[in-house]
Amino acid sequence: MTNPKITTVQQYTPKQALVTKSQSNNYLWNASHTKKIANLKNYSKTTFYASRLVSMRFPHYQYSVNYYYVTSNNSKLKGYVWAKTMVQGKYIKGGYYSYPKFNVLLTTKRITKQSEFSDSSQYSLGGYSTRTSLQNFTKIPSTSSMIKVINYYRQHDSDKRLPATLQNGAKQGVKIATVQSWTTNPNGPVRIPVIEFPLGKSVSWYPRATFAVAQDVMTANLNKVVSYGANNDSFSGAVYLNGLVFNFDDSSAQFRTAYSSTIKKVYKNNIGPHHDLSLVQFSGRTKYVLTSSIMYINPLKPVLKDGIWYGSGNAISGTQQGRTILSKLDPSKSKLYRVIGSGGFTQYQYQSGKWKQQFSINFHQHNADEPASTTDKKNVDVILSTGQKRLQSSVPQLMSGLTYINHLPIIKI
């Protein structure tokens, strides 16, 4: 007869939800530790509720062992189980698990090792924001909405119409977790729900997008996604004539961030509280941008807009193709020509029979330790280069008379 001495270590009010993490024999015992009530290895899809943690000291041992006193969710099983074989969490009907203590809201993968809880403790969203402005995006999604998102990406795994970061890995597993996102000091970080897939065949998880982005992509009509340029060509694609890029469908949530890449796909237009944002895929990330600032320009066919020629891609001075395009521009229609590059543009003026470079403007990602040129969330820092001088300022201050570039419609050629 065993009859260990039982001492209560901790009472739980409310009861603590637990699931087994053991893949080997894991027994539920009676109080005298003489009868095996059940082998919890066979109850991986059962949530148990612990009312207390106890210490059991057995006569033949010189040390004590911690056990939980647990009851199954249907109340059919009751007894003591070795604490090391259990983990805080719940089984969710349909094959899902939730481990809130470890910031895992919902996952398709059952955790069997403590190391599997490790994930990105911080997720760099890029850009700067206040704790208050992100509050709407820290809300925990409902279980039903998370299940819907998880099932969607598992069903659409390897679908090339999806953003590159969300295309592959979902069949191996999907996790909805909250990760820290740093905000402008002194507010400190907040936790934002993100969607994660395993990285390759490893057990490491990688945040693919915020949950908000994953949900917005899911509700987009993939058959009506507008694609621009070749995925393997960093120059081809739609150009974005504004340095403001947002992580959420609300321009007040995050601002002053730049992304030096062309737009490959547009999933939605005119969304957000002001119906002025688009959900787009850059080369590697999915973000929100101002709908009015997206413009497609065929690299071989500059367009005339608001009295100014616009070109992109290979239409750059210094290359044979660029010189050919310059020679074909009609200066009688406009003596100004802007070549849109990654993160800005270069302006040329027709003088004495030649197109001469005037200046370049590059949108600048403002760093937290630098003084901001402006505190206006609708503005973005830029760097102006004239070949002799480099000036940092904000768009309205620097570009008076040029601010209409923020209001260009989507142009398809």
UniProtKB/TrEMBL annotation:
Listed A to Z, the keywords are: Carboxypeptidase, Hydrolase, Protease
Q: Which GO terms describe its molecular function?
A: serine-type D-Ala-D-Ala carboxypeptidase activity
E.C. number, please? 3.4.16.4
Q: What is this protein called?
A: D-alanyl-D-alanine carboxypeptidase
Source species: Lentilactobacillus kosonis
